[in-house]
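Postdoc handover notes: sequence design on the structure in folder B. Input tokens:
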């Protein structure tokens, strides 16, 4: 692969891909396989390349039959209905249906690029039928894509953030990128923007969340600051998506500010109760199975005082979920646990007692909606309600962990950007998180981000290559 200092500064590429994650690499590979010359510019270092892809585990795609690693079929219509439920019916339906249809090819296509899969993880995720798990996780998947890129002749440079875009009337002219402290002008016939959202830009988040954003933890790298997104919007590309919406989950409050990744996520909300700093519950912990509802908890915690909450459970649930990197806080009594958490022991004791009194008998089944519920308790718990009574007692402190934001650029069925006047851009395409808000208006389901990235990446890459050869 080329280093920027070794490149001919006068070289005109067919396609410039800005970004270095799954969407960017899928775009680059698709364009290159269609005969285009491609340069990938990644703002992060080689070690941190790939943005959020580094922390992923699986991809949710439609498929007609079971495979060696998928336990059954997952139809296009079922995936679309799942998308409607998570977004409350608000999505670009033609684009969503098109991407879901395209997703059926992606699993095989990724395999052709060297990506391998493994059987799904056990425990509470219940994703064996719907989601394909990457062998070795997201970083291994990403490494395979980079190996393929190198093998087929794609130029890649790292530590090279794009600082300016020259765009005139919906036509991309050039990009300015900083490499080793020196600005370079990069020319290409087409641009594919795949540089992620603005989740690492706390000041931008504050525009919508206020000071609460100071308490947000960023699950990915510090690099996703929305610089390219802002430049595109300022250049007249039409925006889409709600800036207050994002993929935000409850993660261990002891996680680092950046790059904690998936090992700080907590999958145990459904097995206990969640209380805020006032030691009271604030939402139904058993509303739906975890893969479809886990991403609501980041926003819920963000709306609580000081953006902090605590998952409280007992010994009967300790081994039913994948633990965090950090051990749970433990005590022999609820009151002692409250003291360790800095909560009012009397109030937490009352909260647990009232919850326990509302639990109704049922057949507990952690793998499915079991109807084990509470009655006469506000808020209710709709499934997996069991009394918290078996010592020792445990708790995890949690904060909002943002994965990516949903504000982005509008695109059409070719992944081509749409300008403010409604016309398609002549030579600008978008892929991944920077355009996810077209499909994801709110909510999330496990693996859907990788689906959007892979599919839109292929679409953008093929479209850019075709554009270059007109």
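Designed sequence:
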């Amino acid at each position: 692969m080329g280093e920027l200092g070794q490149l001919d500064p006068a070289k005109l590429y067919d396609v410039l891909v800005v970004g270095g994650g799954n969407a960017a690499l899928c775009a680059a590979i698709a364009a290159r396989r269609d005969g285009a010359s491609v340069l990938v510019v990644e703002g992060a270092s080689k070690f941190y390349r790939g943005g959020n892809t580094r922390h992923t585990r699986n991809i949710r795609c439609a498929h007609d039959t079971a495979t060696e690693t998928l336990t059954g079929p997952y139809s296009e219509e079922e995936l679309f209905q799942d998308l409607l439920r998570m977004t409350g019916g608000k999505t670009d339906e033609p684009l969503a249906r098109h991407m879901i249809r395209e997703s059926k090819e992606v699993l095989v296509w990724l395999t052709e690029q060297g990506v391998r899969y493994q059987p799904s993880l056990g425990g509470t995720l219940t994703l064996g039928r719907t989601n394909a798990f990457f062998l070795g996780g997201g970083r291994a998947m990403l490494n395979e894509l980079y190996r393929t890129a190198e093998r087929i002749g794609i130029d890649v440079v790292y530590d090279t953030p794009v600082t300016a875009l020259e765009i005139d009337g919906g036509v991309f002219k050039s990009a300015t990128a900083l490499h080793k402290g020196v600005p370079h002008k990069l020319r290409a016939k087409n641009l594919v923007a795949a540089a992620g959202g603005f989740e690492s830009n706390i000041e931008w988040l504050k525009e919508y969340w206020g000071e609460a954003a100071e308490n947000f933890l960023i699950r990915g790298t510090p690099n996703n600051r929305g610089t390219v997104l802002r430049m595109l919007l300022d250049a007249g590309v039409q925006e889409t998506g709600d800036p207050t919406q994002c993929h935000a989950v409850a993660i261990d409050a002891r996680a680092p500010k950046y790059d904690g990744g998936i090992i700080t996520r907590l999958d145990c909300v459904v097995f206990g109760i969640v209380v805020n700093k006032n030691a009271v519950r604030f939402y139904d912990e058993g509303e739906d199975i975890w893969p479809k509802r886990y991403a609501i908890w980041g926003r819920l915690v963000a709306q609580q005082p000081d953006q902090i909450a605590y998952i409280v459970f007992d010994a009967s649930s300790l081994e039913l979920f994948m633990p965090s990197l950090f051990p749970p806080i433990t005590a022999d009594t609820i009151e002692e646990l409250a003291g360790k958490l800095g909560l009012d022991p009397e109030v937490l004791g009352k909260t647990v007692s009232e919850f326990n009194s509302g639990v109704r008998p049922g057949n507990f089944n952690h793998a499915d909606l079991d109807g084990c519920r509470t009655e006469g308790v506000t808020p209710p718990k709709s499934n997996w309600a069991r009394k918290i009574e078996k010592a020792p007692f445990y708790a995890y402190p949690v904060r909002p962990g943002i994965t990516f934001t949903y504000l982005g650029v509008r695109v059409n069925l070719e992944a081509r950007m749409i300008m403010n006047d409604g016309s398609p851009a002549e030579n600008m395409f978008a892929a991944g998180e920077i355009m996810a808000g077209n499909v994801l208006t709110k909510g999330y389901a496990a693996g859907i981000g990788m689906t959007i990235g892979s599919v839109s990446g292929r679409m953008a890459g093929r479209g850019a290559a075709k554009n270059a050869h007109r």
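Context for whoever picks this up: DSSP finds eleven helices and 19 strands in the chain. Don't rerun without checking with the PI first.
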